[in-house]
Design goal:
single chain, alpha/beta, Rossmann fold, 6-stranded parallel sheet
Length: 363
Amino acid sequence: MDKENYILVDFPVDDPLAEYFNYKGMEFDFLPGEAGAPAVDVIADRISGKDKVSLILSPLSTLKKLYKEKSIYNDFNEISKKLTIILYDEMDLLLDLYKIADREPDFSSWINGIGPDVFTDGIAGTFFHERYPKCQFMEMSRHPVISRGAYPELSTLKRHLPVKDFLCLTCQSPQQPHRKLFYDSFEKKGLLDSTIYNFQPRGTNTHNDLAVDYQQIIIKDSWPDALPPVSFYNQTNLEVVVETWPMKHNNDDTFDISEKIIKPITMEHPFMVLSNFNFLKNLRDLGFMTFGDHLDESYDTEENVTRRMDIITDNMRILKGESSKLYEDTEKIRTHNLSNLQNLLGKSKTKLWREMDIFWRTR
């Protein structure tokens, strides 16, 4: 391992990469959150006299300051030519870069001009390679939601006594119009009476249902979004997961796991997923099994998002009143998925360290 490379980072002290650098004996330092001076001047001062420097930055933190702030002493565009620039955020990096490209095109063009390496939290699909062609995406096998937002032990709380066919919990958002379209399809096909659902905007009562299953101390000390509402899983036979990814681009095959798909796996529940196309394929590449022998999963290879919705809701129409058989017939798949989640969780840190070893050997 090359210890001469000096690394400046803006992630918190408890980040997994900080632990990795400490164990490896690599020289790194933290950039201050509020420095009282332009970020470029702070960086220029810190790297003075250093031969090999890498900057690891979050696009919504220091990198945005470097884009917006002006200095009479230093020009980051010039300084960056001598450095290795790495974009990293343990959670939601791809989603952040998507939002920047969608809402701040000048900022995204500036990022692309720097041409940084990007430690992705998923698989960067066609959208990213078109919008950030000069960036080098390093697809890390360690998915942060699996390593920090999975609670497979909660499967032991389940006591399955179904009264409805389906579960679908999702918050409405103007930035994710597919969710409203999906609700409209639910309603049109007469599926609401067979479903425990939530399609309300996110608010202060979003996690109120968790109080049925958990003490307040658990809810307070956990990431509430990742806690599965056990009583809802007890009452249903299949979850329809509406993933986080904004599906504005029909042919985008970006793969990004959120806590939404982890919850049915934790609860040993069958699922269908509305997300980018090839989501199920990428999920299977991680070792999970899906339910193509029991329902129509052709929606996964359908590039048009409206058509994906139609296939999913058609599946539900067919399963309405008959979902108990699907639940019973998929026991082996469901138990396999829980075991695979636990396996990935156990290996996540080792995989991260090995991938980092490979990366830093070339720097």
